[in-house]
């Protein structure tokens, strides 16, 4: 099943690549920004090597639910510098390779200030995110809080469309973005 990719990003060289990722996860949209800061936004994380972001890895269930960033490994000085910057992020936990796939998975703990937000994400309760995370998400993706924007609407429920008009199996009451399907938000190496 493919995940819908909406054109909700300010188009620049880096975010244009997001439209090329066929199965962009909700985790990439809503959880990855938890690691963002003034110095780390989409231009930092979404490189040409970025594959996707997940809340788990089926091949390593012992790691639990965290932030998993998957990148295509590239033997270059630039990539080694980028990898070093990832490892300096306070929430960095560990990494491992999928050598046959030439991929590296980087694991990050959920930042303390977003642990409750993470639980809301897993339930599909985007409007219950803290104001701090909502602002981080919009800043991360370079989006201004506007009514016409689907991501902003997911966070603030600004559109007039009600949940009653939507499939209640896919939406939490009062929410304007579908619940995450955890099978799509957890990485599974096809082997």
Can you describe this structure?
By secondary structure, the chain is of the alpha+beta class. It has one domain (13-187). Helices cover 28% and strands 15% of the residues. It is built from 8 helices and 6 strands; from the N terminus they run αααβββαββααααβ. It has helices at residues 13-16, 26-30, 42-45, 77-87, 115-123, 131-140, 150-156, 182-185, and strands at residues 50-54, 56-57, 67-72, 92-98, 103-108, 186-187. A 4-stranded antiparallel sheet has the order 1-3-5-4. Strands 2-6 form a two-stranded parallel ribbon. β4 and β5 (103-108) form a beta hairpin. The two termini are 18 Å apart.
Put simply, the count of helices is 8
Helix share of residues? 25-40%
Major β-sheet strand ordering: 1-3-5-4
Overall strand count: 6
Strand content: 5-15%
Distance between the termini: 18 Å
Short description:
By secondary structure, the chain is α+β, with helices and mostly antiparallel strands. It has 8 helices and 6 strands.
Features:
191 residues, 4-stranded antiparallel β-sheet, two-stranded parallel ribbon, 6 strands, disordered N terminus
